[in-house]
Structures are given as C-alpha cells and as structure tokens.
C-alpha cells in the first residue's frame, strides 16, 4: 500500500514544475501551495517511515508548509475588502486545521499524515487558479474571465484513500 502511495505521489511531482505568472496574486499563492505540496510529496518518496533521514526530510517539508500557512493566516487577519467574510472565516478555520494536523505530523511524519496536507494544498491551489485576474472589475468594462486549470494541473478533488 505504501509503495502505491509513493508511486502516486512521485507521478504528481512533475506536475508541480511551474512558475507563477507575474501580476496575479492568486496564481502566485497557488504556485506556493503547489510548490510546498511538491516538497511534501518528494519527502514521502524519499524513503520508509522508519528511516531517520526520511523523517527529518518530512519534518523539513512540514515546517515549510506550516510557514506558508502562517503567512496566509496573517494575511487573512488583516482588514481586507477583497475577500468575503465567509471565505475569510473558512480559510482561517482550514488554517487552524493545518496547524493542528502539522503538529501531529511533526511528531509522527508518516506518508499518510503528509498526504492530507498535500491534498489540502492541491485543492486550495486548484480553487485559486479559477479566480479571475480582475476580480474587482477595475480597468475596462469587459467581463473578467477566469483562467481554467490546465489539463495537467491537479484535479479539484482527490482520492483520499491511503
């Protein structure tokens, strides 16, 4: 079962090799989430759960992901008008889950524990890639269009069986 999990994550690593487009904060945030998901996936494939070096690599990837989510939390606590109160509340709740899950995963950095965070990052990134570049309608009167997730990007939902 772990072998299939490792292969699955190894297959996904190549899908993360993208650089964000300039001028699109949502796409930059999506790229950051995908990059940390990539690091988490690489840590899963680096070796077995009981290997000391593997555990340390996983903890390093977990700390990177935790720092990213801490940045998101800080941004979400600012007085912002570009995010609906419901989205802000939901993201803060999700951030709290990521915090708690990360603490547990740092204590026991199994492939399964990291997979939960990979799935969260990929789902949020997929949503961010759907945000229109011009969400406030600034500029001309043309309707803002969202940029769909290309076919090789992560899907919006994932098989969570590990």
Main sheet makeup: none
Q: First CA to last CA: what distance?
A: 7 Å
Shape: globular
Oligomeric state, counting identical vs distinct chains: single chain
Strand segment tally: 0
CATH class of the domain at 23-128: Mainly Alpha
**What's the average pLDDT?**
78
Instruction: Write down the secondary-structure element order.
Output: HHHHH
Assigned CATH architecture of the domain at 23-128: Up-down Bundle
Helix-strand makeup class: mainly alpha
What is the helix fraction of residues, given as a range? 55-70%
Q: Can you tell me about this structure?
A:
There is one protein chain. This protein has a domain at 23-128: Four Helix Bundle (Hemerythrin (Met), subunit A), CATH 1.20.120. The chain is built from five helices and no strands. Helix 2 runs antiparallel to helix 5. It has helices at 2-13, 25-45, 52-76, 85-107, 111-128. The longest helix is centred in the middle third of the chain and has 25 residues, at 52-76. By secondary structure, it is mainly alpha-helical. The N and C termini lie close together (7 Å).
Concise synopsis of the structure shown:
This protein is mostly helical and 162 residues long. It has five helices and no strands.
Task: Set out the fold topology.
Blueprint: H1 2-13, H2 25-45, H3 52-76, H4 85-107, H5 111-128
